[in-house]
Amino acid sequence: MDVQRAEKAVLEEERKLDEYLRDERGVVRLCARSIKEVHRGDLDAALKLAKEAKERMDGLPRIEGRGKHVEQEYAEALALISVAKGEEIPDHATMGVSAQGYLLGLADAIGEIKRLIIEELRKGETALAQGHFSRMEEIYAEIGHLHFSSAALPEFRRKQDVARMQLEDARGKLVR
Fold first, then answer.
1. What's the total number of domains in the chain?
2. What is the pLDDT of residues 118-137, one digit of tens each?
3. CA 63/CA 65 separation, integer angstroms
4. What is the CATH number of the domain that holds 58?
5. Which among 100, 87, 98 is positioned nearest to 46, based on CA atoms?
6. What residues make up the domain containing 127?
7. Model-level pTM?
């Protein structure tokens, strides 16, 4: 029996996973800061943070069952930056993320676009708010009809439901 060598091997795997999780959290923080900069109106800073997040994300080791969350956060940040700049949202291959991370990120981006709309309405920038609402509708029209098993894309159905509610809430704020 060789329990000590097996224990050593598992401890090494655990150490690698702990390191990965720390680095993954760092990338997620960069994406959150990028989104914050969009809401502050500094799109250059937002893009710089998103690029740094991408570089760090690309440096993460591939671990089975990991990576979707960080890809989702990056896709959300990049989608929001694209909408705020009035540009097309890149596809998942261009972003360098999985299809699953991309779809989850797009669903989450709808809530961030709603935040943009509310701030624009607060400032009296109705035309800009209307334009962003159109983009919000466009994203939902593309992802709202998709159906996957929760094994293939966990949480997607819930995110679609939340996105639909955010879309309807934003619509209500625009018609007031």
1. 1
2. 999 999 999 999 999 999 99
3. 6
4. 1.20.58.2140
5. 87
6. 3-175
7. 0.91
